[in-house]
Amino acid sequence: MDTNLKGKVAVITGAAGVICSAMAKSLAAMGVKTALVDINAEAVEKLAQEIEKEFNVSSIGVAASVLDKESLQKAKKIINNMLGSVDYLINGAGGNSPLATSGVDQMVDSDLEDLDETFFGMKMEGFDKVFDLNFKGTILPTMVFAMDMIDKKSGSIVNVSSMNSFRPLTRIAAYSAAKAAVNNFTQWLAVHFSKMGVRVNAIAPGFLLTNQNRFLLTDEETGEPTARGVKIINNTPMERYGTPDELQGTLLYLLSDWSAFVTGVVIPVDGGFSAYSGV
Ligand code: NAD
User: Fold this and answer.
1) Does ligand 1 have an atom closer than 6 angstroms to the CB of 242?
2) 256 lines ligand 1 (CB under 6 A)
3) At residue 212, does pLDDT exceed 70?
4) Which Pfam families does the record match to this protein (predicted)?
């Protein structure tokens, strides 16, 4: 059993983000060569330099959009030339949009006078954006980068899901449904690739305070937690937000041969949120 990740090549999409930059660093600390793919070219180039300096292992920043197959194919050529064939893929690019977020948790009679904050005020443009980024943005990079793994009959793909994928969270209809689709696709692809030596799993992080959800969880002016933020903490048995570092053990487990017989699972890393009924 090969549990050593050293020398392997990992592609990480959304690598400039809070969660995936931490993933890139923990992989580099294990000696993994990292290809940091993001639309924010400047940020990933800078991160790659930092990683090379700190961990003394190859890292490159590559500009590409997970919604543009051609840009991903170009990225793959660069990655193959500079780092070698791809062993691991982490589909991390994802997120929500305020356009597909309702302003109220539950509709009540008084909302009938102004529907803007209810389901009826949500924009299809927002649904499209969120489904594209989270769902299509998982499928397209997999189509491009998994081929190397299929060729050598070895590899591991980790998708980044969310708590909202198991039971939807109020307000974020599109984001919840899109991450549920990611879970479903994770299982589908795990079965599809199961005889080809390529495993497909997902991590469902619990609540971390990041740029993507800050507008929902803290008051912009005062910095105090919103009512929603308080609810989250009260429903997380560990009574706190998680940190990106706390996802890393699960990531390393899913990539390495320690999980050689594990495929098609979605692992919650959530301080107990998904286990807790609130009572
Ligand atoms: P983030 O907003 O910090 O980072 C997202 C990154 O994706 C950014 O660097 C952005 O430039 C990049 N990106 C956006 N569109 C892209 C595209 N078309 N192509 C390539 N890159 C693109 O996000 P984060 O909070 O670190 O979240 C990372 C993943 O974790 C997402 O899939 C998110 O849905 C998921 N997640 C986050 C939380 C949380 O609490 N933050 C919880 C559960 C799941």
Assistant:
1) no
2) no
3) no
4) adh_short_C2
